[in-house]
Amino acid sequence: MQHPLSPGVVASALLACPGVAGCSNSTTSSCCQALEGAGVGVIYPGSELYGNRTESYWSVTSQLTPWCIAQPTSAQEVSTAVVTLVQDTSCQFAIRSGGHFIWPANNIEEGVTVDLGLMNATTYDEETQVASIYPGSRWRGVYETLDPHNVTVPGGRAASVGVAGFLTGGGNSFYSARKGFACDNVVNFEVVLANGEIINANATDNSDLFQSLKGGQSNFGIVTRFDMQAFDAPPLWGGVVQYNKTTGPQHIDAYVDWTNNVQNDVNGSTIIFWSYQPALKDIVIIAAYEDTGGNVAAPAFDQFLAIPGNLSSTMRIASHLELTNELEQPTGYRDIWWTGTIKNDKRVYEKIIELHQELCDFMAAQSPDGDFITQAMFQSIPTIFSQHGEEKGGNVLGLDRETENVVMLLFTLAVNGEEQQAVAQEQMRKFGEATMEYASSIDAAVEWEYINYSYDYQNPLASYGDANIAKIRAAAAKYDPSGVFQTRAPGGYKITRSSGTVA
């Protein structure tokens, strides 16, 4: 693909931009003005729109201040932006889609953020039942488009989650036991490569890239459209139930049993977590139950529903959209996460609850405002998830190596202020490491990290297994031979910095 700019346009674009906030040096001027000269919309620090886009990142930890924000409106404009930045400037850049990641893999300080937020439409083809979803979309908009057609796709369980990062990282949904990971339901990716070429990756065209994008995230190019196979979907039965933490032993027993039996009722989905709530100054247990077939209180949930004395319940028949609106997390915090995976062993659950209590006690004793929120969350990952993935062409997540049902962990800590963020990072790392040390000591550790939940000190790509690491490396080298998305777009987990050993 030829560069879209004539020499005269390039020369004028490289001129200084006096009086424009964010253009304080020639490097900044050349990067941002080159994009403007190429016809890509650019916004600068000091403008209301720049402030709004910066503050719209879900976690304060990702709210950086790039030199400018580029806002393409089409795949062609994304191509123009990439070619302009790569060929005519030396600046680094970041790619933002929904902006829900918990560390700034999707933003940059010393460089340009390419913000796909204006590319946020969803269209639906009733004949093929394919939903075409653009990368700046969030799942709320996707479900709003699909609900009137009585169809859906496997997507985020919180409506504000972005589409692109969720899908390229795998994507666990209410429908995983029926459909596999969300990425396994993508039938085509439209991708802008580093040289500006726009290609499709699917089961027949660029099939190696198609498989690698299902879990390989930001190592190959920029996905500008996701075509997903939709399916008929009745309203779900679901909601959120809160319990006193004294019911913990019953919940652990119920979840161990649930994980062992997911394959016996693939309509079911259950997330359970222990959460410190600042308004209560205590820990509660929160459970999200869903039946994607709309079956009310199906027998699979019997053990959970038999736990007495819940504090509140919103269980009802509702749409996919309504249930995902309910599972939103508070905004405005600095969010620190950690993830790991364990065997379905009751002893590890009990150890995690003990460690979580210690974390909450520590944070409460030193927090200057008492305003912090935790989650110690369990999510079943049965082998049936990967079986569905293999049937649909495979992904690079590496969970097909597991021969028994396992449990994915998510530990979160939301705090205020940079000092508390530093404390939280240290404590969350200790929490996670102590968990895996204990799990290893009883042969209950699993070498897999979910990339969508991992924090910057983790190394999830390395946990995919040598065969998948090799696939991702080969695809990155083939489709981005100059390594643009390894070096010039440094955010996220890069395959060139991942080995086969988990850090």
Provide the descriptors you would attach to this structure in a database record:
503 residues; alpha+beta; Uridine Diphospho-n-acetylenolpyruvylglucosamine Reductase, domain 3; Vanillyl-alcohol Oxidase, Chain A, domain 3; five-stranded antiparallel beta sheet; 33% helix; 22% strand
Please provide a written account of the structure:
This protein has 503 residues and is α+β, with helices and mostly antiparallel strands. It folds into 3 domains: 7-115, 2-Layer Sandwich (Uridine Diphospho-n-acetylenolpyruvylglucosamine Reductase, domain 3); 122-232 and 462-483, 2-Layer Sandwich (Uridine Diphospho-n-acetylenolpyruvylglucosamine Reductase, domain 3), CATH 3.30.465.10; 236-456, Vanillyl-alcohol Oxidase, Chain A, domain 3. It has helices spanning 7-13, 26-37, 48-55, 75-88, 139-146, 163-168, 176-179, 207-216, 248-260, 302-305, 320-326, 346-366, 383-391, 418-441, 466-479, 484-487; strands at residues 42-43, 68-70, 93-96, 112-115, 122-125, 130-133, 151-152, 186-192, 198-202, 222-229, 231-232, 236-244, 268-277, 282-291, 312-313, 316-318, 334-343, 373-381, 406-415, 445-446. The strands form 4 sheets. Strands 12, 13, 14, 15, 16, 17, 18, 19 and 20 form a 9-stranded antiparallel beta sheet that branches. β5 (122-125) and β6 form a beta hairpin. The model is unreliable at 1-24 (pLDDT under 50).
